[in-house]
Amino acid sequence: MSVLLPAGQITPHFSVAEMSCPCCGFIVLDNARHVCEELERVRIMCGPLQILSASRCLKYNVHVGGQINSYHLNSLAADIGVGRDADRYRLVQVLLVLNWFGIGVGNAMVHADRRQRVLLPQARVMWAYPLGA
């Protein structure tokens, strides 16, 4: 069953605006739709999510110090704002249960990406950002 969404919405709780590059509006819509559908599943288990960064153009990715091969460049990642330690821990648990394969943990955010599992289907990657990130 198809749900009619208001203009500018990718899924019921995530918009094109919040998932696009803040400097130019870049987005790979098919990839962003996939990420948003998966974020809807996360939202069911964690409650509302604050998207800090999703799609990025190359220029903006360099500006924010992103990795050269960042999944943000293909609209396959989202940085989610999380203030409390317990909420961050819960979000990471949920991302693992829902088979997100790239998870980075910072002081006030969690990076989640839908990286491809071509070479090692069971492989997951997790990292911690330096203090202050």
Secondary structure layout plus pairing:
Elements: E1 9-11, E2 14-15, H1 16-19, H2 29-46, E3 50-53, H3 58-63, E4 77-81, H4 85-97, E5 102-105, E6 109-113, E7 125-128
Parallel strand pairs: 5-7
Antiparallel strand pairs: 1-2, 3-4, 4-6, 5-6
Structure in words:
The chain is of the alpha+beta class and 133 residues long. It has one domain (9-128): Muramoyl-pentapeptide Carboxypeptidase, domain 2 (2-Layer Sandwich). It has helices spanning 16-19, 29-46, 58-63, 85-97; strands at residues 9-11, 14-15, 50-53, 77-81, 102-105, 109-113, 125-128. The strands form 2 sheets. Strands 3-4-6-5-7 form a 5-stranded mixed beta sheet, with helices on one face. It has a two-stranded antiparallel sheet with strand order 1-2. Strand 1 (9-11) and strand 2 form a beta hairpin. The N and C termini lie far apart (41 Å).
